Amino acid sequence: MPSEARKKQLEARLREIKQNKIKWLQLQRDQRNANLLEFFNRPKEELGMPANPLQAELLEAWENPQYKVFLYSGANRLGKTTILTIIAFSVMFGKWLWNDQKIWFPHNKPRKCRILGQAWEQHIKAVLIPEFKKWWPQKRNVKKKKNNNGVEYYWEDEITGSTLEIMSNQQDSDVMEGWYGDFIGYDEPPQRDKRVALSRGLIDRKGRELFCMTLLKEAWIDREVIKKVDKNGRPDRSVFSVNGDISVNIGYGIDQEGVDDYMSKLNEDEISARIHGKPSYMSGLVYAAWNRNFRPRGSLMERFPIPTNWIVDIAFDIHPREKQAVLFLATNEKNERYVIDEIWEYGDGDKIADEVIRRIRRNAYRIGTVVIDPLSKATGDSQTDKESTFYKIRNKLWQYEIPLIIASKDKTSGILAVKEHLLGPNKQPSLFVFEDCIRFIFEIEGYIWDEKTGKPSDKDDHFMENLYRLLLCDTHYVEPDDEDFEEEDARTDGVNSRTGY
Fold first, then answer.
1. pTM, to two decimals
2. How many CB atoms lie within 10 A of CB 469?
3. Domain range 49-282, CATH architecture
4. Which candidate, 452, 439, 457, 432, places its Cα nearest to that of 286?
5. Over the stretch 417-457, which tens digit does the pLDDT of each residue have?
6. CATH architecture label of 300-490
């Protein structure tokens, strides 16, 4: 047995080791707190602060030079000002400090950045500046200038020579002209004229914009930025957007108890915007779950040739005095649905049916069900009137042994079916849309509830009618019959008598 003196020596040594470990850990924490940016997006076991899932998506997208405009929007306490600060500083430094990975730029000059905040006192001085000071590494010297409001509005990194200038949404847009640079960040929604004035300065250096905001106002951002289209009318692929519920940040700086306490102080509209990240002007959307990002994050897809074994259903929404709407919906082996084509043009039944048949034959579609608007049976455009649109379409299709069926009128069940495909139990879509189905995308993004009737608006709803009618057909994939291929081989003209191609 060790002597009493020996026991005391061992105990003293253990206390010393424990104290040294505590001092070492404290030193590590002090170093981390002085240089937080080096520890961001690193595992907790390395004293790191992992990015929340939405922040991680944004950082990954930043590595893709295709994107020029980024939106990080949603609920309060989503880490929006934090990620804006981190990206702005990283652009200045030319790399991510936590892994020393360089950020690509089209030039080697010092970067010029601007951030647009809201009011000088209430927002910039009270929120932005403290966040800047928290995240600026103490080991890097920085030159600062103050404006007449006493705000440190100008920051210059002494290592790279890169600069960051803070401006206010309350300033006149004229003072924002005549600038050029690499990065603009918006903390909360900017007024449109401010964005126009600032973004001109990005042209020379092919710069980027980052919107970090809770969209309580400035609805133009949804129309002109989030839903921006290219010169062909397709969703602009230079725009990257993520939107999140407050729950995304639970465990990354906030907890459920704090969220519940905050939510108890809000009304229904405020909960929608501040907790779930849905602004009031979007609360009336029928299909709020629609995600215009590309697969796998959303429902958009690049066009590809449709496999000949997929089943293609077709829906007609016809009107005597308006454009005719025809939707093509494919079902694959997994019973996923794909909006693969659309017709949106004037014409009588003969013209529209001829165009449908051309597309069927040109693409070798395997036809499933073809439905038509129930109102096509109404007086003036009936099945018995040989000059009616219905009659002409039915007869044209029948020449290729394609039956035409009257669609279901059950809009309520149809809308529920669409919603289930947009966001299933696994929180993933099973409805995908080719990016060049321009009219369809326009309609699904603007399909709203009528406040007076409580029903979906009947304006710009032609493809929405077609969509729910096709989903109510509940097509399930089956393998093609061998008889179909034998029949096709036996014909001298190479046209399948059942499908018409």
1. 0.76
2. 29
3. 3-Layer(aba) Sandwich (3.40)
4. 457
5. 999 999 877 778 999 999 999 999 999 988 888 878 888 88
6. 2-Layer Sandwich (3.30)
